[in-house]
Design goal:
This protein has 1 helix and 8 strands. By secondary structure, it is mainly beta. The protein has an 8-stranded antiparallel barrel with strand order 1-2-3-4-5-6-7-8.
């Protein structure tokens, strides 16, 4: 329960920080789009492939650090960090006698390529990287203390494709779809913290 409160608090803090950053940038000093030197941060909700959990909650941060290519192939390379949290339960008996609760914390670091389009409001990207997942299981059946709480972790390759749509120069709608770590579909808001 403490972890849920911590993750929800983190998501709320990211959203509040993003709102204040977006408000400060309303003056028009920022162009739309993801650029070298820009940083985006914001909360996301994940759907699908959560082992029985309805939703995951988390946040995203990304920083653009290098322009590459020319003409049609030009883009910006960024490094992104994603954190999510979800939990779900499983019952292995017909009468609810052996209930288990699982808490999952996926973390990923990805390198992302942002395609630079003439329309700066649209920011499509592809990314790949490494994911780390921590799973904690606890027994909540009729014999408390019968089984100890256990946890395990794993690492693996993650990949995703996504899109930001800048509704304002400092705020964008965010969506990504991918695999390897946590939910299949994430959606949320991103708030621009800097850039050209």
């Amino acid at each position: 329960m403490r972890r849920v409160v911590l993750v929800v608090g983190l998501v709320c803090a990211l959203a509040m920080a993003g709102v204040s950053v977006a408000s400060a940038q309303e003056s028009g000093s920022q162009n739309g789009g993801f650029t070298v030197g820009s940083s985006d941060i914001g909360p996301v909700i994940g759907l699908g492939s959560n082992n029985g959990a309805g939703l995951s909650y988390g946040g995203r941060f990304e920083h653009g650090f290098k322009a590459v290519g020319k003409g049609v192939g030009r883009g910006v390379v960024g490094i992104g960090v994603g954190v999510d949290y979800y939990s779900y339960g499983q019952d292995f008996s017909p009468f609810g006698l052996t209930n288990f609760k699982y808490s999952v914390l996926p973390i990923s670091v990805t390198g992302n390529y942002h395609f630079q389009l003439a329309n700066k409001k649209v920011d499509p990207f592809l990314g790949a990287g490494i994911g780390y997942t921590r799973v904690t299981a606890s027994y909540t059946g009729i014999y408390p203390g019968l089984l100890p709480n256990v946890s395990a972790s794993s690492t693996g390759v993650v990949g995703h494709a996504g899109l930001r749509y800048y509704m304002q120069p400092g705020m964008s709608f965010y969506v990504d779809i991918g695999g390897g770590n946590g939910a299949t579909l994430h959606t949320g808001l991103m708030f621009k913290m800097g850039g050209k």
